[in-house]
Write the structure tokens for this entry.
Amino acid sequence: IDMMMVVQKVNALFPTMKIEHFGDPSTLLEIASAPRRIPFLLLGFVWFILFIGSGLAIMNFHADVSMLEVHQRFYELLTGKHNEHPYLLQIPYSIGLGLGMLLFFNHIFRKKFNEEPSPLEVEMFMYQQNMNQYMVMNEYAKKSSRKGQQKEEQE
């Protein structure tokens, strides 16, 4: 809804009224329907695929940077002994990796650590703003093309 449309309608009803507008000149109205229920099986399948994919990404990263060799060398620097499986470093590293992800995304289930938005929430906000701006611009383009067509038809 364009603010100029609102002003025109109000002026038609109350011609002596003075209108001052503050804020965005356009408002998007979204007519929401009842939310769809996501099938549990589909949710489980998508979760499983994402879990496997993220695990493979982490494992491939570790293979690329030779994480085992890094842990072995670091263990050797700390203790002076070579160890083929430095679990003393690998287990805390793995736990820290998982906890770091939870802290980075700023919540465990529905519990948040602080009031700052998570990176995902910021991205979703930016996406929504861009979509709203696109919708407004698209509506203005449609409106101007309709007006152009009406003028051509009148001539």
Observations:
- Helices lie at 3-13, 40-64, 67-79, 87-104, 119-154.
- The chain has five helices and two strands.
